[in-house]
Amino acid sequence: SQQGEEDPQALSIQEGENATMNCSYKTSINNLQWYRQNSGRGLVHLILIRSNEREKHSGRLRVTLDTSKKSSSLLITASRAADTASYFCATVHAAGNKLTFGGGTRVLVKP
Amino acid sequence: EAGVAQSPRYKIIEKRQSVAFWCNPISGHATLYWYQQILGQGPKLLIQFQNNGVVDDSQLPKDRFSAERLKGVDSTLKIQPAKLEDSAVYLCASSLDRMDGYTFGSGTRLTVV
Description:
The complex is a heterodimer of chains A (about 110) and B (about 110). With about 110 residues, chain A is mostly beta strands. Chain A has strands at about 5, 10-15, 20-25, 30-35, 45-50, 55-60, 60-65, 70-75, 85-95, 100, 105-110. Helix content of chain A is about 0%, strand content about 60%. Chain A starts with a strand and ends with a strand. Chain B is mainly beta and about 110 residues long. Chain B is about 0% helix and about 50% strand. Chain B has no helices and 11 strands. In chain B, the strands form 2 sheets. In chain B, strands 2, 4, 5, 6, 9, 10 and 11 form a 7-stranded mixed sheet that branches. Chain B has a 4-stranded antiparallel sheet with strand order 1-3-8-7, with no helix packed on it. In chain B, a hairpin with a 7-residue loop joins strand 9 (about 90-95) and strand 10.
Protein backbone atom coordinates (compact mmCIF):
# COMPACT_ATOMS: atom_id res chain seq x y z
CA SER A 1 0.00 0.00 0.00
CA GLN A 2 1.22 3.52 -0.68
CA GLN A 3 1.65 5.80 2.28
CA GLY A 4 1.66 9.13 0.51
CA GLU A 5 -0.77 10.69 -1.90
CA GLU A 6 0.39 13.54 -4.08
CA ASP A 7 -1.78 16.33 -5.35
CA PRO A 8 -2.13 17.30 -8.12
CA GLN A 9 -1.39 14.22 -10.20
CA ALA A 10 -0.24 16.44 -13.05
CA LEU A 11 0.86 20.05 -13.33
CA SER A 12 1.64 22.16 -16.39
CA ILE A 13 3.30 25.56 -16.00
CA GLN A 14 5.32 28.09 -17.97
CA GLU A 15 9.03 28.48 -17.45
CA GLY A 16 9.71 30.99 -14.70
CA GLU A 17 6.54 30.20 -12.77
CA ASN A 18 6.50 28.45 -9.43
CA ALA A 19 5.32 24.85 -9.08
CA THR A 20 3.70 23.61 -5.90
CA MET A 21 2.75 20.05 -5.13
CA ASN A 22 1.37 18.51 -1.99
CA CYS A 23 1.68 15.19 -0.25
CA SER A 24 -0.48 13.64 2.43
CA TYR A 25 0.36 10.56 4.44
CA LYS A 26 -1.36 8.33 6.95
CA THR A 27 0.92 7.15 9.74
CA SER A 28 3.50 8.72 12.02
CA ILE A 29 6.79 9.32 10.30
CA ASN A 30 10.45 9.66 11.13
CA ASN A 31 11.13 11.76 8.04
CA LEU A 32 9.70 12.66 4.65
CA GLN A 33 11.68 12.81 1.45
CA TRP A 34 11.09 14.18 -2.04
CA TYR A 35 12.49 12.56 -5.17
CA ARG A 36 12.58 13.46 -8.83
CA GLN A 37 12.36 10.97 -11.68
CA ASN A 38 13.00 11.66 -15.33
CA SER A 39 11.47 9.43 -18.00
CA GLY A 40 10.78 6.44 -15.75
CA ARG A 41 14.42 5.94 -14.81
CA GLY A 42 16.15 6.05 -11.43
CA LEU A 43 14.95 8.42 -8.77
CA VAL A 44 17.08 11.29 -7.56
CA HIS A 45 16.89 12.34 -3.92
CA LEU A 46 16.05 16.03 -3.62
CA ILE A 47 15.49 16.84 0.03
CA LEU A 48 14.77 15.20 3.39
CA ILE A 49 12.82 16.83 6.19
CA ARG A 50 12.70 15.34 9.66
CA SER A 51 9.50 15.02 11.66
CA ASN A 52 10.65 17.75 14.08
CA GLU A 53 11.34 20.21 11.26
CA ARG A 54 8.75 22.49 9.68
CA GLU A 55 10.53 23.93 6.68
CA LYS A 56 13.63 23.28 4.68
CA HIS A 57 15.28 24.91 1.67
CA SER A 58 17.66 23.64 -0.95
CA GLY A 59 18.43 25.93 -3.86
CA ARG A 60 15.14 26.61 -5.65
CA LEU A 61 13.34 23.99 -3.57
CA ARG A 62 11.30 24.69 -0.46
CA VAL A 63 9.69 21.91 1.54
CA THR A 64 7.24 22.29 4.38
CA LEU A 65 5.99 19.65 6.77
CA ASP A 66 2.89 19.79 8.96
CA THR A 67 2.81 16.67 11.11
CA SER A 68 -0.51 17.66 12.70
CA LYS A 69 -2.13 17.52 9.27
CA LYS A 70 0.14 14.72 8.03
CA SER A 71 1.01 16.72 4.95
CA SER A 72 3.95 18.21 3.13
CA SER A 73 4.44 20.53 0.21
CA LEU A 74 7.23 20.97 -2.31
CA LEU A 75 7.69 24.34 -3.99
CA ILE A 76 9.95 24.77 -6.99
CA THR A 77 10.60 28.45 -7.61
CA ALA A 78 11.43 30.00 -11.00
CA SER A 79 10.90 26.70 -12.81
CA ARG A 80 12.98 25.69 -15.81
CA ALA A 81 12.27 23.33 -18.68
CA ALA A 82 14.80 20.96 -17.10
CA ASP A 83 12.51 20.65 -14.06
CA THR A 84 10.08 18.63 -16.20
CA ALA A 85 9.86 15.30 -14.38
CA SER A 86 7.75 13.27 -11.97
CA TYR A 87 8.09 14.22 -8.32
CA PHE A 88 7.45 11.72 -5.54
CA CYS A 89 7.11 12.13 -1.84
CA ALA A 90 8.16 9.22 0.32
CA THR A 91 7.96 8.64 4.04
CA VAL A 92 10.01 6.67 6.51
CA HIS A 93 7.75 5.29 9.21
CA ALA A 94 8.36 6.23 12.81
CA ALA A 95 9.20 2.59 13.46
CA GLY A 96 11.49 0.99 10.93
CA ASN A 97 13.47 1.92 7.86
CA LYS A 98 10.91 1.32 5.14
CA LEU A 99 10.58 4.14 2.59
CA THR A 100 7.07 4.24 1.15
CA PHE A 101 6.27 6.25 -1.96
CA GLY A 102 3.20 8.06 -3.15
CA GLY A 103 1.90 8.01 -6.70
CA GLY A 104 3.77 11.11 -7.84
CA THR A 105 3.06 14.43 -9.51
CA ARG A 106 3.99 14.80 -13.18
CA VAL A 107 5.28 18.29 -13.81
CA LEU A 108 5.61 19.77 -17.29
CA VAL A 109 7.46 23.07 -17.59
CA LYS A 110 6.84 24.67 -20.95
CA PRO A 111 9.58 26.90 -22.39
CA GLU B 1 31.47 8.19 -4.94
CA ALA B 2 30.19 5.53 -7.32
CA GLY B 3 26.43 5.19 -7.52
CA VAL B 4 24.21 2.14 -7.28
CA ALA B 5 24.89 -0.13 -10.23
CA GLN B 6 22.18 -2.26 -11.80
CA SER B 7 22.16 -4.65 -14.70
CA PRO B 8 20.82 -5.33 -17.20
CA ARG B 9 19.25 -2.02 -18.27
CA TYR B 10 16.58 -3.72 -20.33
CA LYS B 11 15.20 -7.23 -20.54
CA ILE B 12 12.47 -8.72 -22.68
CA ILE B 13 11.28 -12.23 -21.89
CA GLU B 14 8.30 -14.41 -22.62
CA LYS B 15 5.82 -15.24 -19.90
CA ARG B 16 6.75 -18.28 -17.82
CA GLN B 17 10.46 -17.66 -18.43
CA SER B 18 12.88 -16.77 -15.66
CA VAL B 19 14.87 -13.57 -15.23
CA ALA B 20 17.41 -12.23 -12.77
CA PHE B 21 18.50 -8.70 -11.93
CA TRP B 22 21.71 -7.66 -10.25
CA CYS B 23 22.47 -4.73 -7.97
CA ASN B 24 25.70 -3.41 -6.48
CA PRO B 25 25.00 -0.80 -3.80
CA ILE B 26 27.16 2.07 -2.67
CA SER B 27 30.11 0.82 -0.66
CA GLY B 28 29.39 0.92 3.05
CA HIS B 29 25.62 1.16 2.71
CA ALA B 30 24.19 -1.50 4.97
CA THR B 31 20.62 -1.26 3.78
CA LEU B 32 19.55 -2.37 0.30
CA TYR B 33 16.09 -2.19 -1.23
CA TRP B 34 14.37 -3.58 -4.30
CA TYR B 35 11.41 -1.64 -5.64
CA GLN B 36 8.98 -2.44 -8.43
CA GLN B 37 7.61 0.50 -10.39
CA ILE B 38 4.75 -0.11 -12.78
CA LEU B 39 4.27 2.53 -15.46
CA GLY B 40 2.46 5.57 -14.11
CA GLN B 41 2.73 4.52 -10.46
CA GLY B 42 5.07 5.17 -7.58
CA PRO B 43 7.69 2.60 -6.63
CA LYS B 44 6.52 -0.25 -4.43
CA LEU B 45 8.94 -1.87 -1.99
CA LEU B 46 9.50 -5.54 -2.67
CA ILE B 47 12.22 -6.39 -0.19
CA GLN B 48 14.61 -4.68 2.21
CA PHE B 49 17.93 -6.08 3.40
CA GLN B 50 20.00 -4.96 6.37
CA ASN B 51 23.47 -6.32 5.63
CA ASN B 52 22.61 -9.82 4.38
CA GLY B 53 19.46 -10.28 6.45
CA VAL B 54 15.90 -9.65 5.27
CA VAL B 55 14.15 -6.87 7.20
CA ASP B 56 10.91 -6.64 5.22
CA ASP B 57 9.63 -8.83 2.39
CA SER B 58 5.94 -8.48 3.13
CA GLN B 59 5.12 -7.29 -0.41
CA LEU B 60 7.32 -9.77 -2.24
CA PRO B 61 5.26 -12.36 -4.19
CA LYS B 62 7.20 -15.25 -2.76
CA ASP B 63 5.64 -17.86 -5.03
CA ARG B 64 7.58 -16.39 -7.95
CA PHE B 65 10.01 -13.77 -6.65
CA SER B 66 13.16 -14.41 -4.68
CA ALA B 67 16.05 -12.24 -3.63
CA GLU B 68 19.34 -12.66 -1.88
CA ARG B 69 22.17 -10.46 -0.76
CA LEU B 70 25.44 -12.32 -0.69
CA LYS B 71 27.95 -11.27 1.96
CA GLY B 72 25.93 -8.15 2.65
CA VAL B 73 27.02 -6.45 -0.58
CA ASP B 74 25.63 -7.35 -4.04
CA SER B 75 22.07 -8.51 -4.44
CA THR B 76 20.08 -10.41 -7.03
CA LEU B 77 16.33 -10.43 -7.59
CA LYS B 78 14.83 -13.33 -9.50
CA ILE B 79 11.43 -13.93 -11.03
CA GLN B 80 10.46 -17.47 -11.90
CA PRO B 81 8.14 -17.88 -13.73
CA ALA B 82 7.38 -14.40 -15.04
CA LYS B 83 3.87 -13.15 -15.69
CA LEU B 84 2.69 -10.35 -17.97
CA GLU B 85 1.90 -8.18 -14.95
CA ASP B 86 5.54 -8.30 -13.88
CA SER B 87 6.36 -5.83 -16.65
CA ALA B 88 7.82 -2.89 -14.77
CA VAL B 89 11.01 -1.08 -13.88
CA TYR B 90 12.89 -2.79 -11.06
CA LEU B 91 14.83 -0.31 -8.98
CA CYS B 92 17.55 -1.02 -6.49
CA ALA B 93 18.45 1.50 -3.80
CA SER B 94 20.81 1.68 -0.86
CA SER B 95 21.15 3.88 2.17
CA LEU B 96 23.48 4.40 5.09
CA ASP B 97 20.65 4.69 7.56
CA ARG B 98 17.06 5.88 7.69
CA MET B 99 18.02 9.50 8.28
CA ASP B 100 19.74 9.62 4.91
CA GLY B 101 18.23 9.89 1.48
CA TYR B 102 18.28 6.75 -0.57
CA THR B 103 20.47 6.42 -3.65
CA PHE B 104 18.75 4.67 -6.53
CA GLY B 105 20.21 2.85 -9.47
CA SER B 106 18.99 3.49 -13.01
CA GLY B 107 16.73 0.48 -12.88
CA THR B 108 16.04 -2.50 -15.10
CA ARG B 109 13.08 -2.19 -17.43
CA LEU B 110 11.46 -5.61 -17.76
CA THR B 111 8.96 -6.38 -20.48
CA VAL B 112 7.14 -9.70 -20.32
CA VAL B 113 5.45 -10.69 -23.58
